[in-house]
Amino acid sequence: MAQRKIALACSVCGSRNYTIAASATRTQRLEVKKFCKHCGKYTLHRETR
């Protein structure tokens, strides 16, 4: 069975830069500061579904 993948989208420009494996135990959406290559700086990335 293949894992579901979820994208992390930049909260500033909206581009989806990163993908992660979906976790059944996580109930809230993931929010992490990651580097956005389009903005050129570290911004908050939120999990999209």
Describe the protein.
It holds the Pfam family Ribosomal_L33. Keywords: Ribonucleoprotein, Ribosomal protein. This is Large ribosomal subunit protein bL33. One of its GO terms (cellular component) is ribosome. Belongs to the bacterial ribosomal protein bL33 family. With 49 residues, this protein is mostly beta strands. It has one domain: Ribosomal protein L33 (Rubrerythrin, domain 2). Helix content is 0%, strand content 51%. The chain contains no helices and four strands. Strands 2-1-4-3 form a four-stranded antiparallel beta sheet, with no helix packed on it. A hairpin with a 5-residue loop joins strand 1 (5-10) and strand 2. The chain is elongated. It starts with a strand and ends with a strand. The model has no long low-confidence stretch (mean pLDDT 93).
Short structural summary:
With 49 residues, the protein is mainly β. It contains no helices and four strands.
Strand content: over 45%
What is the number of domains?
1
Major sheet: arrangement of strands: 2-1-4-3
Distance between the termini: 19 Å
* Approximate shape: elongated
Along the chain, the helix and strand elements come as EEEE
What is the CATH class designation?
Answer: Mainly Beta
Supply the CATH architecture. Answer: Single Sheet
Estimated radius of gyration: 11 Å
Largest sheet: 4 strands, antiparallel
CATH T-level fold name: Rubrerythrin, domain 2
- What is the share of helical residues? under 10%
State the low-pLDDT regions, or none: none
Count up the helices: 0
Tell me the number of strands. 4
Could you say which structural class the secondary elements and strand pairing correspond to?
Answer: mainly beta
CATH superfamily: Ribosomal protein L33
| Mean of all residue-level pLDDT scores | 93
